[in-house]
Amino acid sequence: MCRYLRVLNAVRDYTLAMPLTYNQLEYLTMPILLDRLVLRHQYCLAIRICQFLRIPDAEGASRILSHWAMYKVRRTEIDGDQIAREIHAKVGYTPGVSYSDIANRAAECGRKSLATKLLDYEPRASEQVPLLIELKEDPQAMSKAIESGDTDLVYTVILHLKETMNNKVDNFQMKIRDFPTAYNLYLKYCRTQDLEELNKMYYQEDNFKVIGNIKVIESSKTTNIDQRIALLQDAAKAYRKSRVDFLTTHCEDQITLLKIQRTLDAESEGGYVGKSLEETLTKLLLARNKRAEEIRRAFRVSDKRYYWIKMQAFGELSDWIELEKLSKKSMIGYEPFVDVCLKHHKSVEAFKYLPKVLPANKVKYYVKAGRLEEASEIAMEQKDEHQLNYVQSRCGTANKTLVDKIQTMKQQLATKR
């Protein structure tokens, strides 16, 4: 009660003339008294009362400081720089006082310059940047967003700039280049959302290699064969300008392949378009189409690679006679022939090639074919205990006779050392 009486004495002073009784103050409540002092611009007295009565800052001093700052920005007779300095000197970084709210009030009063200066003191970029955008301070908004390290804020400014400069695309593309971080983020956005815009950005820089890459990506996304060919032709043209011969040739080869696939689809049941060269050759071989040899020559497929494709195709066709003919002059060894036969569960066919496997791989491939006893004998001939251990590990508990035999072989090797 004593504290309240001292407050009543202060407000009864002739300079204020608020002759309140204790009962009236009780009915009125202290927050309303403080509001009345604020309305009379008695900010200093209101803050002292808050401190004297130990009222929490959020309900007292911080709220009153905010009112004082908002009153201050309405005083047009005082220079904006001076007001900004005075507010910062008085308020500092008092919890509960928002510089963005004060700046917003300054903007509402038509004091755009003062609002911008006050926003320099706002520590929260999430409050700072949107208001700078409203004030049309786009360069400053972008700088603050980048400084904050918040990519969402940077994208907010980028998309705002793009929208406001919608009719001046070139201006936007030049403007964003002033901010390297924002420019890189915009390129990242375009790669996933707007390839056409990305193409324009790189075209301005004469970056034809990247333009070619974009065209290739676009071609991979379309299902229309004519459109795909057109995009690859554009890509080849861009690569030619950037003097990347390898990529130019690659695009031209892909265009040729697509045209061939289009013809093959027209002549057959389809399913060729979009396949790789190897898949196309495999499909032709499976269909026993003689054009496989012609296409192989057109694309200069190496003998060894084509040999491998044919071997796989004969396996898929279960044409074991042709596979055996092919194996007579093997370019790739005999291990792949065993693998193909085993893939199609033809262990009898696989056995034809097992004796021709390289000595270093024999034990492994005999085990793979399920011929464990012969594998152990080969390992013994090679006097290789590690290989014997490998065979033994594959025997399992059911094949105890072979396990014992291998154990005997290992003992024989040990006595010969």
How many helical stretches?
27
Terminal Cα span: 107 Å
| Average pLDDT over all residues | 83
- Beta content comes to under 5%
Q: Any low-confidence stretches, pLDDT <50, length ≥5? A: none
Radius of gyration: 42 Å
Name the structural class: mainly alpha
H/E element order: HHHHHHHHHHHHHHHHHHHHHHHHHHH
Biggest sheet features: none
Q: Let me know the number of strands.
A: 0
- The helix content, as a percent range, equals over 70%
- Give the overall silhouette: elongated
Main attributes of the structure:
single chain, 417 residues, mainly alpha, 27 helices
What would you say this structure looks like, in words?
It contains 27 helices and no strands. The protein starts with a helix and ends with a helix.
Task: Give a short synopsis of this structure.
This protein is 73% helix and 0% strand. With 417 residues, the protein is mainly alpha-helical.
